[in-house]
Amino acid sequence: MVERTPILNFLTHVILFLGFVVAAAPIVIVAIAASHNMVDVNQVPISLIPGTDFWANMKTAWTTADLGPKLLNSLIFASGVAAGKVILSALTAFSLVYFRFPGRNVIFWLVFVTLMLPLEVRAVPTYAVVSNALSPYQAILDVTGISWLIEKVTGIQISLNLGLLNSYPGLILPLVATATGTFLYRQFFLTIPDELTEAARMDGAGSLRFFIDILMPLSRTNMAALGTIMFLWAWNQYLWPLLITTDPSHATAVAELKQLIPNAGGGLPEWHIAMAGTLIVMLPPLIVVALMQRWFVRGLISTEK
């Protein structure tokens, strides 16, 4: 039961307004700082009246950090990670829910436990794999003696090497597995009535057709919500792109914001340029959230099937 009284309505609006102020205040301060010149932005306390150098600072930040190619890299990176997570988690959950095989519950919990292994914890081994994606296979050949045997018989030394550093696959592939997405899809698939599965089977639908023609349309809102969350998560990644992109042509916008961080070498710090660059980098995620808002909310709260 939802109780509606004037006092509760007033308190609700006050809480919503306070939440809006807390969420919007940092963005407003960044925008104001981006409009000041170097002298005004370094005053303490900073003036909260917008300055007149907003567009000049935005242009300087764009050219200094070369944000055009960096934003394109970030868009490819975030879109690839979001699409990979949505597809892979849906397939994983589908196999765990609709296929009966020994150990599937154990596999699910092993996947779920990876929630306790964020990227920051496994950065070193993940980097080692990305630097040579075929190193596990080389180790197998070496341990089993196959590489030694081939070398003795043919004189050819096997050395598998596939480096993914400074490449889009190296940026995207290590991040596409997600326990959160698998759990979300699994819980949704478990709510699908068995009668629907039986009806599809009686109509001659195989596993792949059932997954594509029935489950995917029912999961549209879940896919939109998960894709939006993962896009934002990937866009804001700093550590992983910084680790594996030594070539500036593959750097992401968030990682390249360091080019605008004021240098302590001397002179006044150019915080107004850094804030302008921050605003530019913030714009694409804000646009994605605005465009996907309706689907995002429905995906989080919808129970329709």
Please give a structural write-up.
The chain is mainly α and 305 residues long. Helix content is 69%, strand content 0%. The protein has helices spanning 6-34, 38-41, 54-64, 67-98, 104-113, 123-131, 135-144, 146-154, 168-172, 179-190, 194-202, 207-218, 220-235, 239-244, 253-256, 271-301. α4 crosses α13 (220-235) and α13 (220-235) packs antiparallel against α16 (271-301). The longest helix is centred in the first third of the chain and has 32 residues, at 67-98.
Q: Summed up, what is this model?
A:
With 305 residues, this protein is an all-alpha fold.
Structure keywords:
single chain; 305 residues; mainly alpha; 69% helix
> What is the count of helical runs?
16
Rg for CA atoms: 25 Å
Category by helix and strand content: mainly alpha
Q: Please state roughly what percent of the residues sit in beta strands, choosing from under 5%, 5-15%, 15-25%, 25-35%, 35-45% or over 45%.
A: under 5%
What sequence of helices (H) and strands (E) makes up the elements?
Answer: HHHHHHHHHHHHHHHH
How many strands, which pairing sense, and closed or not: the largest β-sheet? none
What sort of overall outline do the alpha carbons produce when their principal axes are compared?
A: flat
What is the tally of beta strands?
0
Q: Which parts are unreliable, with pLDDT below 50 for 5 consecutive residues or more?
A: none
Determine the N-to-C terminus distance: 24 Å
Mean pLDDT value? 85
Provide the helix percentage. Answer: 55-70%
